[in-house]
Amino acid sequence: MKVAVYNKSGEDTGKKVELRKEIFEIEPNDHAIYLDAKQFMANKRQGTHKSKERSEVAGSTRKIKRQKGTGTARFGDIKNPIFRGGGRVFGPRPRFYGFKLNRKVKRLARKSALTYKAREKGIMVVEDWSLDAPKTREFADVNKNLKIDGKKSLFVLSEKNKNLYLSSRNLPGTKVVTVEELNTYDILDAGTLVFMESSIDLLNRQFGIQ
Q1: N or C: which end of the chain has fewer CB within 10 A?
Q2: Residue closest to 110 by CA, chosen among 12, 16, 29
Q3: Which pLDDT value is given to residue 209?
Q4: What is the pLDDT of residue 186?
């Protein structure tokens, strides 16, 4: 599959870049996508939730009443979970929600997500460009020229560029990542994937395609 290369003014440069079928035209695996997206969201969870159990609640440890002879159930101290202000039974504890996922499954998920995005014609390739300093207005103008302003867009760079990252940070729906940072969740979440021209070769090499 070949796609046209645009410049940052939104004009067709006349050049074309090939999107390799080994990446952008595979048979998608929906379950791999599900697992990778699930892992991504699970890894973002803080897992710092905590409630106090009966051993952690402040209160007296004095026995409330005698063990026998009252005609009612036995009771220990006031921190018993059945009393108001007592500890919580089986409450949440801090934990890590992440889980392991095989590298091959993650690669398959990314290829599947890229294939879906290519089928939707949601991929653009733009000539490499940069900014001398962080300028949100200039980045917004590029979005407008490419006719993706007001939409969710993901710019994929070949290497980190601080000025582009800072320029895009205040634009709602716009995100900038490198090829190494590209993940299944971000691909599916974006309406349009905007690849810098040099990032395509790096993406091919990442998947072992020359």
Answers
A1: C
A2: 29
A3: 81
A4: 95
